[in-house]
């Protein structure tokens, strides 16, 4: 029997824990706050982040991270990117403590290699690292070949409600990919595999920046023509940066790229699009964030991606304007005008630039 520890009791972490537990997999969901863990354990519902979804009776909930990682064949990270490193450090300490115990050995299933999976979508601000790159730095070195990332167009509420969804699992080894594919796949949750760990993670992070731009456009009253242009040119930006960092350009035409981009730029459940909508309607970013109960990853990711574009000398005009709106107080109307008055150019030639 496979055992999985899910770290992060937000909407996405809870949805994935529900999916696994309903599949008959022994699953433990970790919440950072003790009282919050106690509350959802008692009510069998995460009313704050995933209301209306009953938690399976077999799903265990804890605020003790050691209990969440002990004897687990798979550890699934579903925490905000800005808190990812700290949680990874806690996991590292717990795993090191276990491995030093004379009566304990970290076990491997014959069918599924021991794996640590990131389902978080972001880029760390200070280091500009992806989540698996943070794992490489923080976790015990013996686990470096067992890292993976889950991404794709997947609103938590719909996944928890068993609405058909397709995603991608990426790792550097095919065997690890297929093992995790088998773990997560259900009748309504279809999982594809990829060996492009960098591309899949970049797609999941960068699309949130473009979703803010799409929301701004909708909030200002522009039409579907404008949204389609932003999605298409946003995809070009994502591909340029991805290729500069060694990702497979075809990844950005797949679920973790275009698929997630379309969902996040058009879906009403998208928190990043909602941020953009309110910006386009004239609200300040400080007011918007104060009123939000859940994290919109794109706000912090915009800071990271702007810095990456500067560092790697990649042209990303939409990202640049979103950054200026969020962090420099640029009026969205001026941001749109500056985008539209850029010098004319070929459509496809600059993708490879």
Verbal overview:
With 353 residues, this protein is an alpha/beta fold. The protein folds into two domains: 193 residues, Rossmann fold, CATH 3.40.50.720; 147 residues, Orthogonal Bundle (N-(1-d-carboxylethyl)-l-norvaline Dehydrogenase, domain 2). The protein is 51% helix and 13% strand. The protein contains 15 helices and ten strands. The protein has an eight-stranded mixed β-sheet, sandwiched between helices. β9, α7 and β10 form a beta-alpha-beta unit. α8 packs parallel to α11, α8 crosses α14 and α13 crosses α14. It is globular, with a radius of gyration of 20 Å. The N and C termini lie far apart (49 Å). About 2% of the residues have low confidence.
CATH level 3 topology of the largest domain: Rossmann fold
* pLDDT averaged over residues: 93
CATH class of the largest domain: Alpha Beta
Number of helices: 15
Approximate strand percentage: 5-15%
The computed structural class is alpha/beta
User: What is the assigned CATH homologous superfamily of the largest domain?
Assistant: NAD(P)-binding Rossmann-like Domain
Q: What is the total domain count?
A: 2
Give the overall shape.
globular
For the largest beta-sheet, the strand count, sense and barrel status come to:
8 strands, mixed
Unreliable stretches: 106-113
**For this entry, what is the oligomeric state of its chains?**
single chain
Q: End-to-end distance, in Å?
A: 49 Å
Provide the gyration radius in Å: 20 Å
How many runs of DSSP E, i.e. beta strands?
10
Strand order of the largest sheet: 5-2-1-6-7-8-9-10
Percent of residues in helices? 40-55%
Q: What is the CATH architecture descriptor of the largest domain? A: 3-Layer(aba) Sandwich
Order of helices and strands: EHEHEEEHEHEHEHEHEHHHHHHHH
